[in-house]
Amino acid sequence: MKPIQVGLLGIGTVGSGTFNVLKRNQEEITRRAGRGIEITMVADLDVARAQAVVGAGVQVVNDARAVIANPDIDIVIELIGGYGIAKALVLEAIAAGKHVVTANKALLAVHGTEIFAAAQAKGVMVAFEAAVAGGIPIIKALREGLTANQIQWVAGIINGTTNFILSEMRDKGLDFDVVLKEAQRLGYAEADPTFDIEGVDAAHKATLMSAIAYGIPVQFDKAYVEGITQLGAADIKYAEQLGYRIKLLGIAKRAAKGIELRVHPTLVPAKRLIANVEGAMNAVMVQGDAVGTTLYYGKGAGSEPTASAVIADLVDITRLHTADPQNRVPHLAFQPGALSDLPVLPMSEVVTSYYLRLRVADQAGVLATVTGILGQAGISIDAVLQREAAEGENQTDVIILTHGTREGSMDAAIAQMQALPTVLAPITRIRKEELA
Question: Are residues 116 and 62 part of one domain?
Answer without folding.
Answer: yes
